Amino acid sequence: TLIGADGGQAQVAGQDLAADPQAVRAAIGVTGQFSAVDGLITGEENMLLMADLHHLSRGEGRRVAAELLERFGLTEAARKPASTYSGGMKRRLDIAMTLVGSPRIIFLDEPTTGLDPRSRHTMWQIIRELVTGGVTVFLTTQYLEEADELADRIAVLNDGTIAAQGTAEELKRLIPGGHVRLRFADPAAYRNAAHALREVTRDDEALTLKVPSDGSQRALRAVLDRLDSAGVEADELTVHTPDLDDVFFALTSPNLPTQLNQPKEDAR
What we know:
Elements: E1 11-12, E2 15-16, H1 21-27, E3 28-31, H2 43-53, H3 58-71, H4 87-98, E4 105-109, H5 117-132, E5 136-140, H6 144-150, E6 154-158, E7 161-166, H7 168-172, E8 179-183, H8 187-196, E9 201-203, E10 208-212, H9 217-229, E11 236-240, H10 244-251
Parallel strand pairs: 3-4, 4-5
Antiparallel strand pairs: 1-2, 6-7, 8-10, 8-11, 9-10
Helix pairs in contact: 2-3, 2-4, 4-5
């Protein structure tokens, strides 16, 4: 709402960006990559400052601050200077401050950068709870497993443009390389399986076969049906599908295939 549009129209939470910017600002909250916490005052004072900025009454501000501090496990540290908080505690306080105004949409910019694994998983749980509570979360992250864990829809940016978008599974299906790996203990079973299956990659020393697959249930059933028809049973079966790392590298490659460089208008 700070920079006027050159043209076109946009709505945020049902509010027109140009006609009612104040309503748009009231609907959104932002937690930036760098903490907005003031380390010179306590966690509680940070919360009350946000309540004042949202023009809450003194009583309402204290009630909202207390509820959010409890929700984010910060009650015991509420009256300690925020400078004494760990990185994970500061991030939780940051999000709690964002929620003072009850935003319907929250922008989270790399919320887990620099956090240890336990704090990262705590933050993931907080984000899931926000979504369950009806808040729309617009998350930017460079941790692709985080996007896989949390996002209903993902957009991959490449050089300032959207290279592809969709669910995690839809994006993974854009990339070739999925396969079913079969390992055998019996050399005879291995040879029979190799004969029964088409387009396999053999490893005669390890007695393993790699069968191209998109990872779907139908593709896996087809492999198992062919093995059953040959009277062969694998000792070990694993399914590998490309992960979002594979997707990212493929989509941001200088030699990006044209068919991958098309954002989906409707992934349904």
